[in-house]
């Protein structure tokens, strides 16, 4: 779902009764750009902000907050291995036209207590509600098996995560959440979305952009691999052969 469609859903979720006042979110992030260098071991992204209630009056039953950090969307192919004649082989595969390379959600309470399945699916709240856009003509039960496998694989890599108590709300107005960005996170454009939820409905939403990019030698290598893939491959093979020959020559002398 693109950002324009998400914005329309956010607007549709709020009742447009004439003169009705609505709460608003004022969000921010600790870093709008995360730089990956040779010593990068991961980062911690802080999402924080305030809830502005009409007239400054905080309701007796304060609303909840859910934050989602996601991106970049990319096509993926998942292969399933099975043991055939004692050898592990790829026997089946499924293609996804678009799947987030990173997804993390944190909330003030477990998502199941905040929204129903329909609302969770609309706003992609929870890893089980990601819109993965399957591109293979597989049977529904087979496709679901591959979707489950994809989610489990990304969770093991710490690229998909959920934290049901990861948002702290102070005084019913101020909120904050910390999202761990692992060292192997892909570069690209990310979105940090904040949702204000009450009585199973999304009352307000806001988005901030985050950029993850490589710097220095890592950036040069990444660009070389992308722009001059053939030359990059030949250099990599040549360098591997040279290092192997040099190591063999060194040990022969000893």
Care to describe what's here?
With 254 residues, the protein is of the alpha+beta class. The chain has two domains: 3-214, Macroglobulin (MG2) domain (Immunoglobulin-like, Sandwich), CATH 2.60.40; 215-254. Helices cover 28% and strands 39% of the residues. It is built from five helices and twelve strands. Helix 4 crosses helix 5 (229-253). It is globular, with a radius of gyration of 23 Å.
The number of helices is 5
Task: List the domain count as a whole number.
Answer: 2
The residue-averaged pLDDT reads 82
Binned strand content: 35-45%
Count of extended strands:
12
The biggest sheet amounts to: 6 strands, mixed
CATH superfamily of the largest domain: Macroglobulin (MG2) domain
Tell me, what is the CATH class of the largest domain? Mainly Beta
CATH fold-level assignment of the largest domain: Immunoglobulin-like
User: What's the Cα radius of gyration?
Assistant: 23 Å
The best one-word shape is globular
Give the fraction of residues assigned to helices.
25-40%
In N-to-C order, the SSE pattern is HEEEEEEEHHEEEEEHH
CATH architecture designation of the largest domain = Sandwich
The structure class reads: alpha+beta
- In the predicted model, the low-confidence regions spanning at least 5 consecutive residues are 14-19
Query: Separation of termini?
Result: 61 Å
Spatial strand sequence of the major β-sheet:
2-12-11-4-7-8
